[in-house]
Recover the amino acids of this structure.
């Protein structure tokens, strides 16, 4: 089984593999927030690409998470902070979600064999799933407006490292590069990230506590998986 | 002045900056071959995207370099080896060139303020030009069929390192990542590359001597630059 890392949703067609598990990653913050919402009891997350679609759902009475360029959209119930999705707000609800990058990545890869959501906080659950399925893995980094982002690539490297221990083939250039970056960063991910763009973007919005949470490995158990257009916890 | 690294021609629109110098990189092997041909006395290189265009030029009497998937095309005078472009073959000739990746990267970025060709063998000349121009730099990695490639990214990291010493802003995530990879690789680039895809591809074709040459820093002085659709040595 081969592991490949696709560094932007705009490159997905060059890595597309219909027989593979796609692991969608948007560390800051959509994939972390989706994990948090589901382990806190949300029934499902309905990812939508546009603000307009999200507003239609809102008018129908759905709870809606909506973010663009770091900020929560005015009409929405939640932004893109994992701390927004507390049990008292989300339990037993379906939540419609649209974010700058993460939901776009889900959209381009939704026809894969299976689509799961990966984040540092549920890393072990992602590894367990890949181990049980024994098939190719494409790690799809959401990036920032289709540009490369370091935090998603570091997560990819962490996952590549663990899959390598399970005898997955990690010789693809992008897997090798992601692993190399992770090896440099893993002793102090927070310090490594501190030099980068999105950190500065989040810092401006006073979100450093969220960065810490988003970089915390294995805080939760649970695997968000796409089923019939809705992301639910895998049973 | 900002330095950005664009990791694939397919991502160029997200990094496009009409006021920038674009440094097109295809270490294995188009950008290295273009440098070799020009310093060996070729008058100019006419990059074309398709085999069909190259054949039209060939019929008109031009010398043609043409490669697809590592191999020289049958109809062509040269393949994509820097060793093909010797002074006795190229001196005072215009050469039409089409390759799997490099000429595609030139094609997408040809409207930049200036487009130059970067390779390890002419690295110092690229740095000198960026220093003299004092404007933003976009390093465009040709990749492999629009996929990420490690050798182009390592060159980007080497260039980022030198531009950082000249007070260029290198805080973009992709510049930071390329630099981090280069820092890991630079003591032994050949060994680092040996784990990767394109190395294996070239090794299969018995091209290891070319890899060595393509990774040799500052073998030549000279800067290929695009002028009116033709790549010539900058005066």
């Amino acid at each position: 089984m081969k592991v490949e890392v696709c560094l932007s949703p705009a490159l997905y067609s060059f890595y597309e593999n219909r027989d593979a598990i796609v692991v969608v990653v948007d560390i800051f913050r959509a994939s972390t927030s989706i994990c948090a919402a589901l382990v806190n009891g949300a029934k499902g997350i309905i990812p939508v690409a546009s603000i307009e679609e999200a507003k239609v759902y809102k008018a129908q009475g759905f709870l809606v998470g909506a973010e663009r360029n770091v900020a929560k959209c005015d009409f929405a119930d939640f932004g893109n902070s994992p701390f927004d999705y507390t049990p008292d707000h989300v339990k037993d609800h379906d939540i419609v979600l649209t974010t700058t990058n993460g939901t776009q990545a889900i959209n381009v890869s939704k026809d894969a064999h299976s689509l799961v959501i990966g984040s540092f906080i549920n890393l072990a659950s992602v590894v367990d799933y890949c181990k049980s399925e024994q098939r190719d893995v494409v790690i799809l980094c959401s990036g920032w407006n289709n540009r490369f982002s370091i935090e998603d690539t570091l997560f990819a490297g962490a996952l590549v490292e663990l899959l390598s221990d399970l005898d997955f083939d990690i010789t693809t250039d992008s897997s090798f590069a992601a692993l190399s970056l992770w090896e440099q960063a893993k002793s102090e991910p927070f310090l490594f990230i501190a030099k980068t763009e999105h950190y500065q973007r989040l810092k401006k919005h006073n979100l450093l506590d969220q960065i810490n949470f988003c970089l915390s490995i294995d805080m939760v158990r649970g695997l968000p998986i796409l089923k019939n257009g809705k992301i639910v916890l895998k049973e």
Q: What stands out?
A: The mean pLDDT of chain A is 95. Strands of chain A lie at 3-6, 21-25, 44-47, 63-68, 71-72, 94-98, 114-118, 137-141, 224-227, 230-233. The interface with chain B takes residues 5, 7-8, 10-11, 14-15, 144-150, 153, 171-174, 176-177, 180-181, 183-184, 195-198, 200 of chain A (CB under 8 Å). The CA atoms of residues 157 and 179 of chain A lie 4 Å apart.
